[in-house]
């Protein structure tokens, strides 16, 4: 558990700036043509803090995402593969469904993270301070701009993105676990 927490902290610390740049380049009418142009402009205009404005939201999103993801996968494995044998079909289905449930449940946090990263102009115009900072401010701004339904904008795309990702991840994990366990058993039997 502690290793997973530290890994998430370090992963998100390294990846958050990349996510900020990616999302700003993906925005409709983005003024950025190249990655380094975006990095320089954000650094110059908003400072280093802009690359970490959504860091706590990212961490807050990853904790429930992973918890829901693992619990759903384990629950589905109990239903589809109660003897816990290597079964690629059950691993793919359980992984895809677990990713879908976790993605749907954490979409409001993802919407807020994206707003913090992009500082989208429509949202900024509804924000008195000029910059959206912090998760609470992002949650308020999303609600002011679009109501409750705004928290679930892009939920279908997020679910569609996560399903193959988590299906592949679980099937590869279970495959290597099976191979390594099989090798260990063969070594023990050979002694």
In short:
Helices cover 76% and strands 0% of the residues. It is mainly alpha-helical and 191 residues long. The mean pLDDT is 89.
Structure explained in plain terms:
With 191 residues, the chain is mostly helical. It has one domain: Mitochondrial carrier fold, CATH 1.50.40.10. It has helices at residues 2-26, 35-46, 55-80, 88-105, 107-118, 121-125, 135-146, 155-190. Helix 3 runs antiparallel to helix 4, helix 3 (55-80) runs antiparallel to helix 5 (107-118) and helix 5 (107-118) crosses helix 7. The chain is elongated.
Helix-strand category: mainly alpha
Integer tally of domains: 1
**Unreliable spans:** none
Mean pLDDT: 89
* Termini separation: 34 Å
CATH fold field value: Mitochondrial carrier fold
Q: How many helices?
A: 8
Radius of gyration: 20 Å
GO molecular function: ferrous iron transmembrane transporter activity
Function: Mitochondrial iron transporter that mediates iron uptake. Probably required for heme synthesis of hemoproteins and Fe-S cluster assembly in non-erythroid cells.
Membrane topology: Multi-pass membrane protein
Pfam families: Mito_carr (PF00153)
Draw up the topology in text.
Blueprint: H1 2-26, H2 35-46, H3 55-80, H4 88-105, H5 107-118, H6 121-125, H7 135-146, H8 155-190
Helix pairs in contact: 1-3, 3-4, 3-5, 4-8, 5-7
Relevant terms:
76% helix, 191 residues, mainly alpha, 0% strand, Mitochondrial carrier fold, MCP_dom_sf
